[in-house]
Amino acid sequence: MGSDLLNEMVTIPAGSVTLSDRRTERSWPVEVAAFRLSAFPVTQAWYAEVTGACPSTARGDRLPVEGVSWWDAIRFCNTLSRREGLTPAYEVRPGTGEAEWDTTADGYRLPTEAEWEHACRAGSTGPRYGPLDEIAWYRGNSDDRVRPVGGRQPNAWGLYDMLGNVWDWCWDLYDAEVYGTYRVLRGGGWSDEHWSCRASVRRRSHPTFRIDDVGFRVARSTPAAVDARPA
Q: Which of 182, 214, 218 shows the shortest CA–CA distance to 56?
């Protein structure tokens, strides 16, 4: 599988998803506009090509980049956008610990939590989009290490490693009133038990946190979705 294919973006159709939180026993529906999402987690080769950095603990071009913070992920998105002549999605304010998302921008960004779950489910309604051992690397089959992307079956929309291998950073705050600036992680990782590798599972972490089972994938708004959003 060539490196260009590992950077492939997939168009995700519009739809709706119901998010839920086990801690608060709350659920809420969200409408999701069509958007584009990378078919694979960002690989170490792609991350190094864009940023010149190799932060991961394990090394391999086709391994998902890990050891990246939420801030690292949004800076990658902005750098990639500028390289491709697109408008960066984020305004990062140095020294303030704040970032603002320009929803009218056509550049790369992190998926929202609702977009991530909608894309993960790919029209399915169960906890997973297929049998766990066929679709995910997790504690039961990973041999305690991160694995090259694309080594398990994709979901119905052609997305690989949505569950297992590495957790994905999302744009959203987890619960600002309780956890402040903590951001959402989704998907489960190579060291997680089977119950963490489900489409609905939410995890939280501080945006500066770096560890060897957390990575990310990138999204882009479709032109129609950008045009429909208020300035």
A: 214
Beta carbons of 65 and 57 less than 8 angstroms apart: no
pTM (predicted TM-score): 0.94
Which tokens belong to 71?
Answer: 């801030």
Contacting residues for 55 by C-beta, under 8 A, at least 6 apart: 47, 65, 66, 67, 68, 72, 210
Phi, psi of 170 (to 5 degrees): -115, 165
With pLDDT > 90 as the criterion, what percentage of the chain qualifies?
86
Please give the mean pLDDT across all residues of the chain: 94
Q: Which amino acid does the sequence have at 31? A: E
Residues in the chain: 231
pLDDT tens per residue across span 151-161 = 999 999 999 99
**Cβ 97 vs Cβ 181: under 8 Å:** yes
Question: Residue 157 corresponds to which tokens in the numbers above?
Answer: 């929309």
Cα–Cα distance for residue pair 176/132, rounded to 1 Å? 32
pLDDT at 2 over 70: no
